[in-house]
Amino acid sequence: MTFLSLDEVEAVARRAHAGQLDKAGQPYAGHLEAVARGVAARGGSAEQIAAAWLHDAIEDDALSAQWLAAAPLSEHTKRLVLALTKRSGEEPRDYAARIAATPGASVIKEADMAHNADPERLAVLDPATRDRLTAKYARMRRLLREAGAEDSAG
Question: What class does CATH assign to 6-153?
């Protein structure tokens, strides 16, 4: 099977999220691009970069799980996307454990949180939202560290 190139994955992600804005009111594709660049800067593989472009697509209903299952992507890329997809009602600890247990997913989540927590992005938000998100990202970092420590000890 021939897989989508990174340029093709980017195009799919941009189309899927067209018209969507982030919390700061910017086109959502800018967030996806920042996460993909962050993964690349952290030494991520092409599969991880592809997953970075798609990391919110299912969660945001921009693409379906059925689309992902049938997509011309490697099984590893698909596992990464699914690992990063929050499930309705899921506890943050369980989400962090799934990310930590999926090889290569943590670097994508790190890049995602780094962009989400960028002080310039947070500065345009109201103080209550900024404080809520800062606490949320700090908690997820802690949960990921704990989950990673548990995995390496077990």
Answer: mainly alpha
